Protein backbone atom coordinates (compact mmCIF):
# COMPACT_ATOMS: atom_id res chain seq x y z
CA UNK A 1 0.00 0.00 0.00
CA UNK A 2 1.72 3.16 -1.12
CA UNK A 3 -0.80 5.83 -0.25
CA UNK A 4 0.90 8.37 2.03
CA UNK A 5 -0.71 9.32 5.29
CA UNK A 6 -1.87 12.88 5.69
CA UNK A 7 -1.31 14.41 9.09
CA UNK A 8 -4.38 14.82 11.25
CA UNK A 9 -4.63 17.57 13.83
CA UNK A 10 -5.31 15.47 16.90
CA UNK A 11 -5.54 18.55 19.08
CA UNK A 12 -8.54 19.86 17.18
CA UNK A 13 -11.57 20.36 19.42
CA UNK A 14 -9.71 18.92 22.41
CA UNK A 15 -11.19 19.94 25.75
CA UNK A 16 -8.27 20.38 28.11
CA UNK A 17 -8.54 21.00 31.85
CA UNK A 18 -12.32 20.99 31.66
CA UNK A 19 -14.42 20.04 34.64
CA UNK A 20 -16.85 17.22 33.98
CA UNK A 21 -19.86 19.18 35.08
CA UNK A 22 -19.13 21.97 32.59
CA UNK A 23 -19.12 19.79 29.45
CA UNK A 24 -22.11 19.95 27.10
CA UNK A 25 -23.78 16.67 26.24
CA UNK A 26 -25.94 16.81 23.12
CA UNK A 27 -25.64 13.03 22.78
CA UNK A 28 -26.62 12.21 26.33
CA UNK A 29 -30.34 12.51 25.69
CA UNK A 30 -30.22 9.40 23.50
CA UNK A 31 -28.22 7.26 25.92
CA UNK A 32 -31.23 5.14 26.77
CA UNK A 33 -33.50 5.88 23.85
CA UNK A 34 -36.59 4.00 22.82
CA UNK A 35 -35.69 2.80 19.32
CA UNK A 36 -39.21 3.17 18.00
CA UNK A 37 -39.40 6.82 19.05
CA UNK A 38 -36.48 7.68 16.82
CA UNK A 39 -38.73 7.00 13.84
CA UNK A 40 -41.13 9.71 14.95
CA UNK A 41 -41.06 13.39 14.08
CA UNK A 42 -37.70 15.02 14.96
CA UNK A 43 -37.60 17.04 18.11
CA UNK A 44 -35.26 19.63 19.58
CA UNK A 45 -32.44 18.42 21.78
CA UNK A 46 -32.85 19.16 25.45
CA UNK A 47 -29.24 19.70 26.46
CA UNK A 48 -28.39 19.20 30.12
CA UNK A 49 -25.64 21.76 30.71
CA UNK A 50 -24.94 20.76 34.28
CA UNK A 51 -23.74 17.21 33.85
CA UNK A 52 -21.36 15.46 31.52
CA UNK A 53 -22.10 12.46 29.33
CA UNK A 54 -19.92 10.43 31.66
CA UNK A 55 -22.10 11.35 34.62
CA UNK A 56 -25.35 10.35 32.95
CA UNK A 57 -26.15 6.91 34.32
CA UNK A 58 -26.91 3.95 32.12
CA UNK A 59 -30.51 3.62 33.28
CA UNK A 60 -31.20 6.92 35.02
CA UNK A 61 -33.49 8.20 32.30
CA UNK A 62 -35.83 5.26 32.78
CA UNK A 63 -35.78 4.75 36.56
CA UNK A 64 -35.22 8.31 37.74
CA UNK A 65 -32.41 8.02 40.27
CA UNK A 66 -31.52 11.34 41.85
CA UNK A 67 -27.92 12.63 41.94
CA UNK A 68 -28.29 13.16 45.68
CA UNK A 69 -27.95 9.40 46.14
CA UNK A 70 -24.46 9.43 44.64
CA UNK A 71 -22.69 9.12 47.99
CA UNK A 72 -24.38 5.95 49.18
CA UNK A 73 -22.34 2.80 49.52
CA UNK A 74 -22.69 0.09 46.89
CA UNK A 75 -23.03 -3.59 47.58
CA UNK A 76 -20.95 -5.57 45.08
CA UNK A 77 -22.88 -8.73 45.82
CA UNK A 78 -26.34 -7.23 45.57
CA UNK A 79 -28.69 -8.49 42.88
CA UNK A 80 -29.41 -4.82 42.13
CA UNK A 81 -25.72 -3.99 41.86
CA UNK A 82 -25.84 -2.72 38.28
CA UNK A 83 -28.67 -0.34 39.09
CA UNK A 84 -26.55 1.09 41.91
CA UNK A 85 -23.98 2.14 39.33
CA UNK A 86 -26.44 4.83 38.28
CA UNK A 87 -25.53 6.88 41.31
CA UNK A 88 -21.78 6.69 40.83
CA UNK A 89 -19.88 9.55 39.25
CA UNK A 90 -16.49 9.12 37.54
CA UNK A 91 -14.96 12.60 37.26
CA UNK A 92 -12.97 13.27 34.13
CA UNK A 93 -9.29 12.73 34.74
CA UNK A 94 -9.49 10.28 37.65
CA UNK A 95 -6.61 7.84 37.46
CA UNK A 96 -7.20 4.31 38.53
CA UNK A 97 -4.94 1.50 39.68
CA UNK A 98 -1.44 2.64 38.71
CA UNK A 99 -1.33 5.94 40.55
CA UNK A 100 -3.98 5.34 43.19
CA UNK A 101 -2.55 4.10 46.53
CA UNK A 102 -5.83 2.58 47.58
CA UNK A 103 -9.15 2.44 45.80
CA UNK A 104 -12.38 3.85 47.15
CA UNK A 105 -14.03 0.48 47.70
CA UNK A 106 -11.29 -1.38 49.49
CA UNK A 107 -8.99 -2.91 46.85
CA UNK A 108 -5.25 -2.84 47.48
CA UNK A 109 -3.29 -2.58 44.23
CA UNK A 110 -1.72 -5.90 43.34
CA UNK A 111 2.08 -5.75 42.77
CA UNK A 112 1.38 -6.83 39.18
CA UNK A 113 -0.50 -3.63 38.42
CA UNK A 114 2.59 -1.37 38.35
CA UNK A 115 4.47 -3.95 36.27
CA UNK A 116 1.55 -4.15 33.85
CA UNK A 117 1.41 -0.38 33.40
CA UNK A 118 5.13 -0.23 32.68
CA UNK A 119 4.79 -3.00 30.10
CA UNK A 120 1.77 -1.31 28.51
CA UNK A 121 3.62 1.99 28.17
CA UNK A 122 6.58 0.23 26.57
CA UNK A 123 4.22 -1.03 23.88
CA UNK A 124 3.19 2.47 22.76
CA UNK A 125 3.65 3.25 19.07
CA UNK A 126 4.42 6.83 18.04
CA UNK A 127 3.77 8.56 14.74
CA UNK A 128 5.36 11.97 14.21
CA UNK A 129 5.84 12.38 17.94
CA UNK A 130 2.34 11.40 19.04
CA UNK A 131 1.17 8.06 20.51
CA UNK A 132 -1.26 6.39 18.10
CA UNK A 133 -1.65 2.87 19.48
CA UNK A 134 0.05 -0.09 21.11
CA UNK A 135 2.07 -2.80 19.41
CA UNK A 136 0.56 -6.32 19.43
CA UNK A 137 3.49 -7.91 21.27
CA UNK A 138 7.00 -6.99 22.43
CA UNK A 139 8.39 -10.52 22.32
CA UNK A 140 11.92 -10.14 20.94
CA UNK A 141 12.60 -13.88 21.08
CA UNK A 142 10.33 -14.62 18.11
CA UNK A 143 10.08 -13.43 14.51
CA UNK A 144 7.94 -10.31 14.25
CA UNK A 145 5.52 -11.47 11.53
CA UNK A 146 2.69 -8.97 12.08
CA UNK A 147 3.03 -8.74 15.86
CA UNK A 148 4.91 -5.46 15.39
CA UNK A 149 1.72 -3.77 14.17
CA UNK A 150 -1.13 -1.92 15.86
CA UNK A 151 -4.30 -4.04 15.49
CA UNK A 152 -7.68 -2.35 15.81
CA UNK A 153 -9.24 -5.15 17.87
CA UNK A 154 -6.08 -5.61 19.99
CA UNK A 155 -5.94 -1.92 20.87
CA UNK A 156 -9.44 -1.85 22.40
CA UNK A 157 -8.43 -3.09 25.89
CA UNK A 158 -5.37 -0.78 25.79
CA UNK A 159 -7.65 2.13 24.89
CA UNK A 160 -10.03 1.31 27.73
CA UNK A 161 -7.13 1.13 30.18
CA UNK A 162 -5.90 4.57 29.15
CA UNK A 163 -9.42 6.02 29.29
CA UNK A 164 -9.97 4.59 32.77
CA UNK A 165 -6.63 6.07 33.82
CA UNK A 166 -7.57 9.55 32.62
CA UNK A 167 -5.37 9.49 29.50
CA UNK A 168 -7.73 9.91 26.53
CA UNK A 169 -5.30 11.61 24.11
CA UNK A 170 -3.83 8.37 22.72
CA UNK A 171 -7.35 7.04 22.12
CA UNK A 172 -8.32 10.18 20.24
CA UNK A 173 -5.16 9.94 18.12
CA UNK A 174 -5.89 6.30 17.31
CA UNK A 175 -9.49 7.03 16.31
CA UNK A 176 -8.41 9.82 13.96
CA UNK A 177 -5.52 7.93 12.38
CA UNK A 178 -7.55 4.81 11.65
CA UNK A 179 -10.31 7.03 10.30
CA UNK A 180 -7.80 8.50 7.84
CA UNK A 181 -6.71 5.01 6.84
CA UNK A 182 -10.34 4.09 6.09
CA UNK A 183 -10.31 6.59 3.22
CA UNK A 184 -7.50 4.78 1.40
CA UNK A 185 -8.13 2.83 -1.77
CA UNK A 186 -8.26 -0.83 -0.77
CA UNK A 187 -7.47 -3.57 -3.28
CA UNK A 188 -6.75 -7.28 -3.04
CA UNK A 189 -5.36 -8.45 -6.36
CA UNK A 190 -7.68 -6.68 -8.82
CA UNK A 191 -10.70 -6.45 -6.55
CA UNK A 192 -11.57 -3.26 -4.67
CA UNK A 193 -12.97 -3.48 -1.14
CA UNK A 194 -15.87 -1.40 0.12
CA UNK A 195 -15.13 2.20 1.02
CA UNK A 196 -16.12 1.74 4.65
CA UNK A 197 -13.76 -1.15 5.48
CA UNK A 198 -11.49 -0.37 8.43
CA UNK A 199 -7.96 -1.79 8.52
CA UNK A 200 -7.13 -4.88 10.50
CA UNK A 201 -3.84 -3.27 11.53
CA UNK A 202 -1.27 -0.64 10.66
CA UNK A 203 2.40 0.01 11.30
CA UNK A 204 4.71 3.02 11.27
CA UNK A 205 7.51 2.92 8.71
CA UNK A 206 10.57 5.04 9.49
CA UNK A 207 12.64 6.31 6.55
CA UNK A 208 16.03 7.36 7.95
CA UNK A 209 17.18 8.70 4.60
CA UNK A 210 14.28 11.10 4.09
CA UNK A 211 13.78 11.46 7.84
CA UNK A 212 10.02 10.94 7.72
CA UNK A 213 7.39 8.46 8.87
CA UNK A 214 4.55 6.81 6.98
CA UNK A 215 1.60 4.69 8.06
CA UNK A 216 1.11 1.38 6.25
CA UNK A 217 -2.24 -0.38 6.70
CA UNK A 218 -3.38 -3.97 6.17
CA UNK A 219 -6.99 -4.41 5.09
CA UNK A 220 -6.68 -8.16 4.70
CA UNK A 221 -4.38 -8.28 1.69
CA UNK A 222 -1.53 -9.53 3.90
CA UNK A 223 -3.61 -11.55 6.36
CA UNK A 224 -3.68 -15.33 6.53
CA UNK A 225 -6.37 -16.38 4.06
CA UNK A 226 -6.68 -12.81 2.72
CA UNK A 227 -9.84 -12.10 4.71
CA UNK A 228 -10.96 -8.53 5.43
CA UNK A 229 -11.63 -7.79 9.13
CA UNK A 230 -15.38 -7.46 9.60
CA UNK A 231 -14.98 -6.66 13.30
CA UNK A 232 -12.59 -3.68 12.94
CA UNK A 233 -15.31 -1.22 11.95
CA UNK A 234 -17.55 -2.36 14.79
CA UNK A 235 -14.76 -2.01 17.36
CA UNK A 236 -13.99 1.48 15.99
CA UNK A 237 -17.57 2.65 16.57
CA UNK A 238 -17.66 1.02 20.03
CA UNK A 239 -14.38 2.71 20.94
CA UNK A 240 -15.61 6.10 19.71
CA UNK A 241 -18.61 5.75 22.01
CA UNK A 242 -16.36 4.66 24.90
CA UNK A 243 -14.18 7.76 24.39
CA UNK A 244 -17.24 10.02 24.29
CA UNK A 245 -18.80 8.40 27.35
CA UNK A 246 -15.57 8.48 29.36
CA UNK A 247 -14.48 12.04 28.61
CA UNK A 248 -17.79 13.81 28.01
CA UNK A 249 -16.15 15.30 24.90
CA UNK A 250 -18.74 15.01 22.13
CA UNK A 251 -16.76 17.16 19.70
CA UNK A 252 -14.77 14.20 18.36
CA UNK A 253 -17.82 12.13 17.45
CA UNK A 254 -19.47 15.22 15.97
CA UNK A 255 -16.63 15.89 13.54
CA UNK A 256 -17.90 15.55 9.94
CA UNK A 257 -15.09 13.04 9.31
CA UNK A 258 -16.21 10.79 12.18
CA UNK A 259 -19.85 11.05 11.18
CA UNK A 260 -18.93 10.07 7.61
CA UNK A 261 -16.73 7.21 8.86
CA UNK A 262 -19.62 5.76 10.83
CA UNK A 263 -22.00 6.08 7.90
CA UNK A 264 -19.54 4.29 5.60
CA UNK A 265 -19.22 1.39 8.04
CA UNK A 266 -22.98 1.20 8.46
CA UNK A 267 -23.53 1.32 4.69
CA UNK A 268 -21.55 -1.91 4.35
CA UNK A 269 -23.61 -3.64 7.04
CA UNK A 270 -27.09 -2.35 6.31
CA UNK A 271 -27.08 -2.83 2.56
CA UNK A 272 -29.85 -5.01 1.17
CA UNK A 273 -29.10 -8.23 -0.65
CA UNK A 274 -30.24 -11.83 -0.94
CA UNK A 275 -30.18 -12.55 2.80
CA UNK A 276 -33.40 -13.62 4.47
CA UNK A 277 -31.89 -13.05 7.94
CA UNK A 278 -30.94 -9.78 9.71
CA UNK A 279 -27.60 -11.30 10.72
CA UNK A 280 -24.38 -10.64 8.78
CA UNK A 281 -23.00 -13.31 6.47
CA UNK A 282 -19.23 -13.63 6.97
CA UNK A 283 -16.23 -15.60 5.78
CA UNK A 284 -14.07 -17.71 8.10
CA UNK A 285 -11.29 -15.81 9.83
CA UNK A 286 -12.95 -12.36 9.76
CA UNK A 287 -12.68 -11.58 13.49
CA UNK A 288 -10.58 -12.50 16.55
CA UNK A 289 -10.69 -16.09 15.31
CA UNK A 290 -8.72 -15.17 12.21
CA UNK A 291 -7.96 -18.65 10.89
CA UNK A 292 -10.11 -21.43 9.47
CA UNK A 293 -12.20 -22.62 12.41
CA UNK A 294 -15.64 -23.25 10.94
CA UNK A 295 -17.04 -19.87 11.99
CA UNK A 296 -18.13 -18.93 8.46
CA UNK A 297 -21.78 -18.05 8.03
CA UNK A 298 -23.30 -16.08 10.89
CA UNK A 299 -20.80 -16.24 13.79
CA UNK A 300 -22.00 -15.08 17.20
CA UNK A 301 -18.96 -12.82 17.69
CA UNK A 302 -19.77 -10.74 14.61
CA UNK A 303 -23.52 -10.63 15.32
CA UNK A 304 -22.98 -9.43 18.90
CA UNK A 305 -20.44 -6.80 17.82
CA UNK A 306 -22.79 -5.74 15.01
CA UNK A 307 -25.62 -5.26 17.51
CA UNK A 308 -23.34 -3.34 19.90
CA UNK A 309 -22.01 -1.09 17.12
CA UNK A 310 -25.54 -0.32 15.92
CA UNK A 311 -26.59 0.72 19.42
CA UNK A 312 -23.47 2.86 19.82
CA UNK A 313 -24.07 4.49 16.43
CA UNK A 314 -27.58 5.47 17.56
CA UNK A 315 -25.99 7.48 20.36
CA UNK A 316 -23.36 9.10 18.15
CA UNK A 317 -25.04 9.94 14.84
CA UNK A 318 -26.26 13.48 14.40
CA UNK A 319 -29.92 14.20 13.76
CA UNK A 320 -29.23 15.80 10.37
CA UNK A 321 -30.65 14.62 7.05
CA UNK A 322 -27.98 11.96 6.49
CA UNK A 323 -27.97 10.87 10.11
CA UNK A 324 -31.74 10.48 10.34
CA UNK A 325 -31.81 8.18 7.32
CA UNK A 326 -29.30 5.85 8.98
CA UNK A 327 -31.05 6.06 12.34
CA UNK A 328 -34.27 4.78 10.75
CA UNK A 329 -32.41 1.87 9.14
CA UNK A 330 -30.59 1.07 12.39
CA UNK A 331 -33.79 1.02 14.43
CA UNK A 332 -35.47 -1.41 12.05
CA UNK A 333 -32.41 -3.65 11.93
CA UNK A 334 -32.03 -3.71 15.72
CA UNK A 335 -35.57 -4.92 16.21
CA UNK A 336 -35.15 -7.68 13.63
CA UNK A 337 -31.68 -8.65 14.83
CA UNK A 338 -32.60 -8.84 18.51
CA UNK A 339 -35.63 -11.03 17.76
CA UNK A 340 -33.62 -13.34 15.50
CA UNK A 341 -30.71 -13.77 17.92
CA UNK A 342 -32.84 -14.22 21.03
CA UNK A 343 -35.10 -16.71 19.29
CA UNK A 344 -32.78 -18.83 17.18
CA UNK A 345 -29.27 -18.51 18.65
CA UNK A 346 -30.32 -18.98 22.28
CA UNK A 347 -29.88 -22.41 23.84
CA UNK A 348 -30.89 -23.64 27.29
CA UNK A 349 -32.01 -27.01 28.60
CA UNK A 350 -35.59 -26.61 27.39
CA UNK A 351 -34.54 -25.43 23.94
CA UNK A 352 -32.01 -28.25 23.67
CA UNK A 353 -34.74 -30.77 24.42
CA UNK A 354 -36.98 -29.15 21.79
CA UNK A 355 -34.28 -29.43 19.13
CA UNK A 356 -33.67 -33.04 20.15
CA UNK A 357 -37.33 -33.74 19.31
CA UNK A 358 -37.48 -31.74 16.08
CA UNK A 359 -39.26 -33.07 13.04
CA UNK A 360 -37.53 -32.41 9.72
CA UNK A 361 -38.54 -31.57 6.14
CA UNK A 362 -41.27 -29.19 7.31
CA UNK A 363 -42.69 -26.79 4.77
CA UNK A 364 -44.77 -23.58 4.98
CA UNK A 365 -44.80 -20.70 7.42
CA UNK A 366 -46.09 -22.94 10.23
CA UNK A 367 -42.79 -24.90 10.40
CA UNK A 368 -41.29 -25.18 13.87
CA UNK A 369 -37.88 -26.40 12.66
CA UNK A 370 -37.39 -23.35 10.46
CA UNK A 371 -33.79 -24.10 9.50
CA UNK A 372 -34.36 -27.82 8.92
CA UNK A 373 -31.77 -28.77 11.55
CA UNK A 374 -31.27 -32.53 11.85
CA UNK A 375 -31.61 -33.69 15.47
CA UNK A 376 -28.97 -36.34 14.78
CA UNK A 377 -26.46 -33.53 14.20
CA UNK A 378 -26.57 -32.63 17.92
CA UNK A 379 -23.10 -33.35 19.32
CA UNK A 380 -22.86 -35.72 22.30
CA UNK A 381 -20.92 -33.27 24.46
CA UNK A 382 -23.67 -30.62 24.51
CA UNK A 383 -26.05 -32.82 26.54
CA UNK A 384 -23.55 -33.02 29.40
CA UNK A 385 -22.33 -29.43 29.01
CA UNK A 386 -25.76 -27.85 29.38
CA UNK A 387 -26.59 -27.27 33.07
CA UNK A 388 -30.11 -27.37 34.48
CA UNK A 389 -29.90 -23.63 35.16
CA UNK A 390 -28.00 -21.79 32.47
CA UNK A 391 -27.81 -21.09 28.78
CA UNK A 392 -25.82 -19.33 26.07
CA UNK A 393 -25.87 -18.04 22.52
CA UNK A 394 -24.54 -20.78 20.27
CA UNK A 395 -21.79 -20.15 17.74
CA UNK A 396 -23.72 -20.13 14.46
CA UNK A 397 -27.15 -20.73 12.93
CA UNK A 398 -27.74 -21.17 9.21
CA UNK A 399 -29.77 -23.52 6.99
CA UNK A 400 -29.46 -27.12 8.28
CA UNK A 401 -26.54 -26.10 10.49
CA UNK A 402 -26.20 -25.16 14.13
CA UNK A 403 -22.75 -24.72 15.69
CA UNK A 404 -23.30 -25.53 19.36
CA UNK A 405 -19.85 -24.43 20.51
CA UNK A 406 -19.55 -21.85 23.27
CA UNK A 407 -17.73 -18.66 22.21
CA UNK A 408 -16.72 -16.36 25.03
CA UNK A 409 -16.40 -13.02 23.25
CA UNK A 410 -19.80 -13.21 21.55
CA UNK A 411 -21.62 -14.11 24.76
CA UNK A 412 -19.90 -11.41 26.83
CA UNK A 413 -20.63 -8.73 24.21
CA UNK A 414 -24.23 -9.97 24.11
CA UNK A 415 -24.47 -9.18 27.82
CA UNK A 416 -22.74 -5.79 27.57
CA UNK A 417 -24.81 -4.63 24.60
CA UNK A 418 -28.05 -5.99 26.08
CA UNK A 419 -28.55 -8.24 23.09
CA UNK A 420 -29.10 -10.76 25.87
CA UNK A 421 -32.16 -10.07 27.98
CA UNK A 422 -31.59 -9.81 31.75
CA UNK A 423 -32.84 -13.40 32.09
CA UNK A 424 -30.47 -14.60 29.38
CA UNK A 425 -27.56 -12.64 30.88
CA UNK A 426 -28.17 -14.34 34.21
CA UNK A 427 -28.32 -17.72 32.50
CA UNK A 428 -24.96 -17.10 30.77
CA UNK A 429 -23.34 -16.29 34.11
CA UNK A 430 -24.97 -19.37 35.65
CA UNK A 431 -23.42 -21.46 32.88
CA UNK A 432 -19.94 -20.01 33.51
CA UNK A 433 -20.22 -20.81 37.22
CA UNK A 434 -21.57 -24.30 36.56
CA UNK A 435 -18.89 -25.10 33.99
CA UNK A 436 -15.98 -23.35 35.69
CA UNK A 437 -13.47 -26.14 35.12
CA UNK A 438 -14.28 -26.32 31.42
CA UNK A 439 -14.41 -22.58 30.66
CA UNK A 440 -11.95 -21.12 33.17
CA UNK A 441 -9.88 -23.97 34.58
CA UNK A 442 -6.35 -22.91 35.52
CA UNK A 443 -6.23 -19.83 33.28
CA UNK A 444 -9.18 -17.70 32.15
CA UNK A 445 -10.69 -17.91 29.61
CA UNK A 446 -11.59 -20.41 26.89
CA UNK A 447 -12.05 -18.60 23.59
CA UNK A 448 -14.35 -21.43 22.53
CA UNK A 449 -15.48 -24.77 23.93
CA UNK A 450 -15.01 -27.60 23.24
CA UNK A 451 -11.98 -28.21 21.05
CA UNK A 452 -12.23 -30.02 17.73
CA UNK A 453 -10.21 -33.22 17.46
CA UNK A 454 -9.21 -35.98 15.02
CA UNK A 455 -11.39 -36.18 11.90
CA UNK A 456 -13.46 -33.08 12.76
CA UNK A 457 -10.25 -31.05 13.24
CA UNK A 458 -8.85 -32.24 9.92
CA UNK A 459 -12.01 -31.41 7.96
CA UNK A 460 -12.90 -28.06 9.55
CA UNK A 461 -9.45 -26.50 10.13
CA UNK A 462 -7.75 -28.11 7.14
CA UNK A 463 -5.20 -29.77 9.50
CA UNK A 464 -4.10 -26.37 10.84
CA UNK A 465 -0.96 -27.04 12.96
CA UNK A 466 -1.60 -23.91 15.05
CA UNK A 467 -5.18 -24.83 15.89
CA UNK A 468 -4.60 -28.32 17.23
CA UNK A 469 -6.90 -29.48 20.04
CA UNK A 470 -7.00 -27.23 23.10
CA UNK A 471 -4.61 -24.76 21.50
CA UNK A 472 -4.85 -21.23 20.11
CA UNK A 473 -8.40 -20.63 18.79
CA UNK A 474 -9.33 -24.30 19.08
CA UNK A 475 -10.13 -24.34 22.79
CA UNK A 476 -7.14 -22.27 23.90
CA UNK A 477 -7.31 -20.03 26.99
CA UNK A 478 -6.86 -16.30 26.33
CA UNK A 479 -6.10 -13.93 29.26
CA UNK A 480 -7.33 -10.92 27.24
CA UNK A 481 -10.89 -12.21 27.65
CA UNK A 482 -10.61 -11.43 31.36
CA UNK A 483 -11.76 -7.85 30.79
CA UNK A 484 -14.88 -8.96 28.93
CA UNK A 485 -15.74 -11.49 31.62
CA UNK A 486 -15.25 -8.86 34.33
CA UNK A 487 -17.44 -6.33 32.55
CA UNK A 488 -20.17 -8.95 32.10
CA UNK A 489 -19.88 -9.91 35.77
CA UNK A 490 -20.19 -6.30 36.93
CA UNK A 491 -23.19 -5.68 34.67
CA UNK A 492 -25.00 -8.76 35.97
CA UNK A 493 -24.15 -8.09 39.62
CA UNK A 494 -21.79 -11.08 39.92
CA UNK A 495 -18.39 -9.44 40.65
CA UNK A 496 -17.29 -12.40 42.77
CA UNK A 497 -16.97 -14.47 39.58
CA UNK A 498 -14.60 -11.92 38.06
CA UNK A 499 -12.61 -11.63 41.28
CA UNK A 500 -12.08 -15.38 41.36
CA UNK A 501 -10.93 -15.42 37.71
CA UNK A 502 -8.55 -12.49 38.25
CA UNK A 503 -6.95 -14.23 41.22
CA UNK A 504 -6.31 -17.29 39.07
CA UNK A 505 -4.69 -15.15 36.38
CA UNK A 506 -2.56 -13.23 38.88
CA UNK A 507 -0.94 -16.43 40.03
CA UNK A 508 0.75 -16.90 36.65
CA UNK A 509 0.51 -14.06 34.14
CA UNK A 510 3.47 -11.98 35.30
CA UNK A 511 5.59 -15.03 36.10
CA UNK A 512 4.90 -16.38 32.61
CA UNK A 513 5.70 -12.98 31.02
CA UNK A 514 2.18 -12.17 29.82
CA UNK A 515 1.58 -14.90 27.20
CA UNK A 516 -0.85 -14.47 24.33
CA UNK A 517 -2.67 -17.70 25.12
CA UNK A 518 -2.44 -20.98 27.06
CA UNK A 519 -2.89 -24.55 25.86
CA UNK A 520 -4.47 -27.64 27.38
CA UNK A 521 -7.91 -28.63 28.53
CA UNK A 522 -7.45 -26.61 31.73
CA UNK A 523 -5.20 -23.91 30.27
CA UNK A 524 -2.22 -25.23 32.22
CA UNK A 525 0.50 -24.76 29.60
CA UNK A 526 1.85 -21.66 27.86
CA UNK A 527 0.75 -21.91 24.23
CA UNK A 528 3.19 -23.69 21.94
CA UNK A 529 3.31 -20.69 19.59
CA UNK A 530 2.23 -18.09 22.15
CA UNK A 531 4.05 -14.76 22.10
CA UNK A 532 5.26 -13.33 25.38
CA UNK A 533 4.69 -9.70 26.40
CA UNK A 534 1.36 -9.77 24.54
CA UNK A 535 -0.08 -6.28 24.92
CA UNK A 536 -3.75 -7.16 25.06
CA UNK A 537 -3.08 -9.76 27.77
CA UNK A 538 -1.51 -6.94 29.79
CA UNK A 539 -4.25 -4.42 29.02
CA UNK A 540 -7.04 -6.94 29.57
CA UNK A 541 -5.77 -7.59 33.08
CA UNK A 542 -5.53 -3.86 33.87
CA UNK A 543 -9.05 -3.15 32.61
CA UNK A 544 -10.44 -6.03 34.65
CA UNK A 545 -8.71 -4.75 37.80
CA UNK A 546 -9.81 -1.15 37.29
CA UNK A 547 -13.38 -2.12 36.55
CA UNK A 548 -13.66 -4.04 39.80
CA UNK A 549 -11.97 -1.18 41.63
CA UNK A 550 -14.32 1.43 40.15
CA UNK A 551 -17.47 -0.18 38.69
CA UNK A 552 -18.63 3.12 37.17
CA UNK A 553 -16.08 2.47 34.40
CA UNK A 554 -18.55 -0.08 33.10
CA UNK A 555 -20.58 2.77 31.60
CA UNK A 556 -18.14 3.31 28.76
CA UNK A 557 -18.47 -0.26 27.46
CA UNK A 558 -22.00 -1.32 28.44
CA UNK A 559 -25.45 -0.25 27.28
CA UNK A 560 -28.63 -1.04 29.16
CA UNK A 561 -31.57 -2.88 27.68
CA UNK A 562 -34.11 -0.95 25.66
CA UNK A 563 -37.42 -1.74 27.32
CA UNK A 564 -39.36 -1.50 24.06
CA UNK A 565 -37.27 -4.29 22.56
CA UNK A 566 -37.70 -6.75 25.41
CA UNK A 567 -39.63 -9.83 24.25
CA UNK A 568 -41.78 -12.14 26.29
CA UNK A 569 -39.59 -15.20 26.74
CA UNK A 570 -41.42 -18.37 25.80
CA UNK A 571 -38.70 -20.99 26.01
CA UNK A 572 -40.96 -23.89 25.17
CA UNK A 573 -41.94 -22.54 21.76
CA UNK A 574 -39.18 -20.05 20.99
CA UNK A 575 -38.81 -21.46 17.50
CA UNK A 576 -42.34 -20.58 16.51
CA UNK A 577 -43.53 -17.22 15.22
From TrEMBL:
Gene3D superfamilies listed in its UniProt record: 1.50.10.10
User: What is the organism of origin for this protein?
Assistant: Gossypium darwinii
Q: Which domain of life is it from?
A: Eukaryota
Return the EC number. Answer: 3.2.1.26
Tell me one Pfam family matched here. Glyco_hydro_100
Q: What is this protein called?
A: Alkaline/neutral invertase
Any one GO MF term held by the record is:
endo-alpha-N-acetylgalactosaminidase activity
Catalytic activity of the protein? Hydrolysis of terminal non-reducing beta-D-fructofuranoside residues in beta-D-fructofuranosides
**Any idea which UniProt keywords this protein has?**
Carbohydrate metabolism, Glycosidase, Hydrolase
Assigned protein family: Belongs to the glycosyl hydrolase 100 family.
Give the enzyme class. hydrolase
**What functional role does this protein have?**
Invertase that cleaves sucrose into glucose and fructose.
Q: Which SUPFAM superfamilies match?
A: Six-hairpin glycosidases
- Fetch the InterPro entries from UniProt: 6-hairpin_glycosidase_sf (IPR008928), 6hp_glycosidase-like_sf (IPR012341), Glyco_hydro_100 (IPR024746)
Q: Does the keyword Hydrolase apply?
A: yes
PANTHER family attached to this UniProt entry:
ALKALINE_NEUTRAL INVERTASE B-RELATED (PTHR31916:SF40), PTHR31916
Please name the GO terms of the biological process aspect recorded for this protein, alphabetically. Answer: sucrose catabolic process
Amino acid sequence: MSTPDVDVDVNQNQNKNVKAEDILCPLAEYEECDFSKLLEKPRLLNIDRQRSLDERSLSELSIGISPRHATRAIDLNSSRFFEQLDSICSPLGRRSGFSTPRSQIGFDPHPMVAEAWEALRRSLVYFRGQPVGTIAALDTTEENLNYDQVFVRDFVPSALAFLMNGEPEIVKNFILKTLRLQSWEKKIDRFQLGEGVMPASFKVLHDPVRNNETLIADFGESAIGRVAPVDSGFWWIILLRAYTKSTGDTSLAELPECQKGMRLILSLCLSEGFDTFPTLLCADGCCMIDRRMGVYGYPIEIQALFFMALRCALLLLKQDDEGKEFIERIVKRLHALSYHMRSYFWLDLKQLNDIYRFKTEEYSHTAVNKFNVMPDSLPEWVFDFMPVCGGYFIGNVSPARMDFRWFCLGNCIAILSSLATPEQSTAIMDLIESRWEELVGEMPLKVCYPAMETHEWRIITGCDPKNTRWSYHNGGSWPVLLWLLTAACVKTGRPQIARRAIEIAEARLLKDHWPEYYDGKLGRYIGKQSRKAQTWSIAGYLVAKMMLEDPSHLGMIAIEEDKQMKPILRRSNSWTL
